[in-house]
Design goal:
Strand content: under 5%
Shape: globular
Structural class: mainly alpha
Number of helices: 14
Order of helices and strands: HHHHHHHHHHHHHH
Oligomer: single chain
Largest sheet: none
Length: 343
C-alpha cells in the first residue's frame, strides 16, 4: 500500500529554509556595513531560541522523518545511489559554478596554495565545509557551509540507525536521548555545539522516531501545542536549561504543531499553496546557493535603511529561489524525462 504524503512536511521544510535565509540575510547585511538590524530593534533570537538554530534543527528532523517514513522497503544500494544523486551531485554542481565565478570575476588564485592537493577528497566527500570549522585546510567555497557535511555523516549512519529503530524504537530512542543529554552537557569543543555531529544527530534520530510513532495528525493536540510554542517565543527570561536542550524541545514542539495542522483548513491552505510547495521542492539547492546569492545581491542593492532592507528582501529571496530552481531542474531533467518503455 502506498504511504501517505504528509503535506505539512512541505510547510516545515519551507519554513526552516526561510528562517535560515532570513538569518543570513540579516547578518550579511550587517557584516557588509549596509544596515544594522540590531540597531533597528529587529532580533533574530530571544532569551531561549535562535532562528537559525531552529531552522537547522528542523531540517535535520525533517530529513530523519522523511528517510524513515519512506524506507519501508530498504535497499542499501538504492539508498546510497539516491543520496548520492540528491545530495552530492547538486553540491558538486554548485561548487563548480562558484569556482568558475570566483575564477573569472576575482583577481588572484581561488585557493590558498598551501592547501595539500589531496585535501580535495574532502570536497569529493562533501565534507570540506564541515571540516573547515575544525581548522582543517580544505578547498571549501562555502557551498552548503558546515551543514552539508554534517548531514552527509547522518545519512551514512542512517542504515544502522534504521536497523536499531526497526528492532526496538523505544530502546533506540531512550539510548539516543541519554547519549544526547550527556554529550550536550559535557561538550566543550572548539566549534559551537550546534555544529557538533554527535549532538546534532539527535535531531535526525528524533525525526526518525516521529516517523515511526506519528500515524495521524490530531487537531485536538493543537490546544496544548500552540500555547507551548508561544511560550518559547515570548517568554522573556532564560529557561534554566542547557541551550541545546531548549532548542531541541522547542523544535520538537514546533514540528508536532505543524504536523497536527495537516487536516486543518490552515494546514491545507498553507502547505498546498504554490510558493510553499516550490520552496520546499528546491530548498536544498537554494540552501547551497543562498549565502553567496545574498552577498552578491547586497552589493548590488546596498540596503542602507530599514525600509530598503525590507524592500530588498523579496528580490534577494527571488534570485536565490530562481538559482535553486534552475540548478534542481537542470540536474533532474534527464531523470524525469526518460521515455516510457515500449511494450
Amino acid at each position: 500500500m502506498e504511504r501517505k504524503r504528509w503535506n505539512c512536511i512541505d510547510m516545515l521544510r519551507a519554513g526552516s529554509f526561510l528562517l535560515i535565509f532570513l538569518y543570513h540575510y540579516m547578518i550579511e547585511t550587517e557584516a557588509g556595513g549596509y544596515f544594522s538590524f540590531s540597531g533597528a530593534g529587529i532580533l533574530y533570537e530571544n532569551a531561549n531560541i535562535h532562528m537559525a538554530k531552529v531552522g537547522v534543527t528542523l531540517f535535520f528532523m525533517i530529513s530523519g522523518f522523511g528517510l524513515m517514513y519512506s524506507s519501508r522497503e530498504f535497499s542499501l544500494k538504492t539508498y546510497a545511489k539516491k543520496r548520492f544523486w540528491r545530495i552530492l551531485i547538486p553540491f558538486y554542481a554548485a561548487s563548480l559554478f562558484m569556482f568558475l565565478c570566483k575564477k573569472l570575476l576575482i583577481p588572484g588564485p581561488v585557493f590558498d596554495g598551501t592547501i595539500p592537493k589531496w585535501h580535495i577528497i574532502f570536497t569529493v566527500l562533501g565534507l570540506d565545509g564541515y571540516l573547515k570549522e575544525y581548522g582543517v585546510s580544505t578547498f571549501s567555497l562555502g557551498v552548503g557551509e558546515w551543514f552539508v557535511g554534517c548531514m552527509i555523516l547522518m545519512y551514512v549512519c542512517f542504515p544502522l540507525l534504521r536497523l536499531g529503530m526497526k528492532k526496538n524504537r523505544t530502546v533506540m530512542m531512550v539510548a539516543a536521548t541519554a547519549f544526547y543529554l550527556i554529550i550536550a552537557a559535557v561538550y566543550q569543543g572548539s566549534v559551537p555545539s550546534h555544529y557538533f555531529f554527535l549532538i546534532k544527530i539527535y535531531d535526525f534520530i528524533l525525526g526518525m522516531y516521529l516517523a515511526e510513532r506519528l500515524k495521524h495528525a490530531s487537531v485536538s493536540n493543537l490546544a496544548v501545542l500552540i500555547p507551548a510554542v508561544l511560550f518559547f517565543v515570548i517568554f522573556p527570561v532564560h529557561i534554566p536549561l542547557n541551550r541545546d536542550y531548549v532548542n531541541t524541545i522547542f523544535c520538537a514542539i514546533l514540528f508536532l504543531t505543524i504536523f497536527c495542522t495537516e487536516n486543518t483548513a490552515f494546514g491545507r491552505h498553507v502547505s498546498g499553496c504554490l510558493p510553499v510547495r516550490k520552496i520546499s521542492q528546491y530548498s536544498y539547492e537554494m540552501f547551497l546557493l543562498h549565502h553567496w546569492g545574498i552577498i552578491v545581491m547586497n552589493r548590488i542593492l546596498q540596503p542602507q535603511s530599514l525600509a530598503a532592507a525590507v524592500f530588498c528582501l523579496i528580490p534577494e529571496l527571488t534570485v536565490c529561489f530562481a538559482a535553486g530552481a534552475v540548478l534542481h531542474e537542470i540536474l533532474y531533467f534527464a531523470v524525469r524525462s526518460k521515455p516510457a518503455r515500449r511494450a
